[in-house]
Amino acid sequence: MIDVAAAFSPSYAQARQKFLQACMAAGLRAQAHVHPLKGRDGEALAMDVALDGAADARHLLILTSACHGVEGHCGSGVQVFALHDEEWRQKAREAGVAVLYVHALNPHGFSHRRRVTHENVDLNRNFLDFAQPLPANPAYAELHELLLPPAWPPTAENQAAIDAWMAAHGIKAYQAAVTAGQYQFPDGLFFGGHSPTWSNQTFRRVLREHAQHAQGLAWIDLHTGLGPNGHGERIFACKDDKAAYARANAWWGAEHAVTSIYDGSSTSALLNGLMWNSIYEECPKAEFTAIALEYGTLPMLEVTDALRADHWMHKYPGKASPELAASIREKMLEAFYTDTDAWKGQIISQARQAMFQAVEGLTRA
Ligand SMILES: [Zn+2]
Question: What is the pTM of this model?
């Protein structure tokens, strides 16, 4: 067991080092899938994978961090803590549940404090069949120019136009328009891509190598940036399947019901191209049960504005002064990571509970 705060890191480079050290201390071999680009400080980037348990275990729990790059400060902390948590490891071991840790699904975004991949893609909107017509998002198309105006901070006129849009359509519709995913503007927000990203292809390789034999497959995918500060919303993360939803609620819904994007109970909008589509494609035989554990940080509009600023800076390279660029990067970190001991304590205790519940659920049968 290590100190909660010590499990978290202020940078990707340190987070990776802590993860690799934790694997070593646990006697696990970590496997690096090296990313083609370098990180912010010139460091190597990788999706690191470690399996704790038997390679042929019938039950497998996958625990993933940094789908959305900068959100990895949270997820990495959970993974590092878990690897040092002997009580947790023993619980899984005795139940015969193997645990697959995937550290930094999107290491480039993590290192560069961005939510998107180096392709400017929202990885959790990138898992769909690109041979088919892509989902339309006409509301985003209306907002795109307003969201990324030529000048930052936005002018009073820009703010007034956004406020008018929200007044006309409602704040829920604004959230859905911006976050549902769009496939029309490659320099825009929540762009789902036009082809599978590096992270998409690499994660599928990881699934093929480690998850195809599992009969019972659970996944907890760690996210931040939505909901009340420190609260971990358990968002159902499977296809719209009644039996899977009932299972997710039985495992994880004791205190707070598992929320769903299908019935409007989640603070998340209905989304396209979600990562879990890969499980149905790569591991079709598994009984699959999953949640995204989504921890709150700042209010939704502040998070959205942090993302607008970040995308503005990348859409107009060289426009931001060094001071403005630094403040935009600082705000991105704050929007997805609350750097306090109290928040980290809430993160660990809720994640740990969900992990124990997953082991019990997988072996209940
Ligand atoms: Zn996320």
Answer: 0.98
